[in-house]
Structure formats: structure tokens, C-alpha cells
Design goal:
Blueprint: H1 3-13, H2 31-81, H3 93-107, H4 110-125
Helix pairs in contact: 2-3, 2-4, 3-4
């Protein structure tokens, strides 16, 4: 692989793909300050990327758990609680979960009420 192509590949998909190269002219006495600042900026950037990745994983896990709870509720109580409700018209999982939970609380038995409250609690934390 030619050097130029390898450099372009590294800039597009490597560990430093979202960083830019900067050259500055500073007095010799300020060189160490600039190097420390650059190291701190890189460290802060890496930390924020890791935090964003963890938050995304947490949200995905919460969405999977909420979906599983809704699927369980619909399998147990679907025909009884969903009279004229078309869940397909609701825009996202959160709004569908709220409708399912409120319907279970209003129209279900004691177990449905408990499951509905659990779903609502999960929706509020998501």
C-alpha cells in the first residue's frame, strides 16, 4: 500500500481520525505549555468519547428492557387492554410503552396494574 494511501486511511479510520494536526509558532519558553495543553485536550476528548459510548450502551439496554416488558404485557393482556388503540401510529417505543402501561392500569387486573406501573417507572427513567 502506498504511503499516501496509508496516511489517508489512517486519517479516516484510525485512532486519531477525529483529531486534526495543528502547527503553531511559539516562543521556546511556551513550548512545554502548548504540549501540556494539547495532551490535556486529547485526554478530555478521549474521555468524552468513552462517556458517550457508555451512555449509548445504557440507553440501548434500557430500550431493550422496555421493549421486552411491552412484549410481555402485550402477550399477556393484548386483546383485553388495546380496544381501539393502533400502536403502529405512535412514533416511538417510549410513547407506545406509555399507552400500553396506562391501558393496563385502567383495564387490567392486579398483575396488569403492577406491570403497568413498572413500565411507567421504566419509561420515566429512560
Amino acid at each position: 500500500m502506498p504511503i499516501r494511501q496509508r496516511i489517508e486511511k489512517y486519517r479516516g479510520s484510525g485512532g486519531a481520525a477525529d483529531l486534526v494536526r495543528v502547527e503553531v509558532l511559539v516562543p521556546p519558553s511556551g513550548r512545554d505549555d502548548v504540549i501540556r495543553l494539547a495532551a490535556r485536550l486529547r485526554s478530555d476528548h478521549r474521555d468524552s468519547k468513552e462517556l458517550q459510548a457508555k451512555e449509548l450502551q445504557t440507553k440501548e439496554l434500557q430500550a431493550k428492557e422496555l421493549q421486552a416488558m411491552c412484549d410481555r404485557a402485550l402477550s399477556l393482556y393484548g386483546p383485553r387492554i388495546l380496544d381501539n388503540v393502533d400502536l403502529g401510529r405512535l412514533p416511538d417505543l417510549r410513547s407506545r410503552a406509555e399507552v400500553i402501561a396506562r391501558a393496563m392500569i385502567e383495564r387490567g387486573d392486579a398483575r396488569a396494574f403492577a406491570l403497568g406501573r413498572e413500565i411507567l417507572a421504566r419509561v420515566e427513567t429512560a
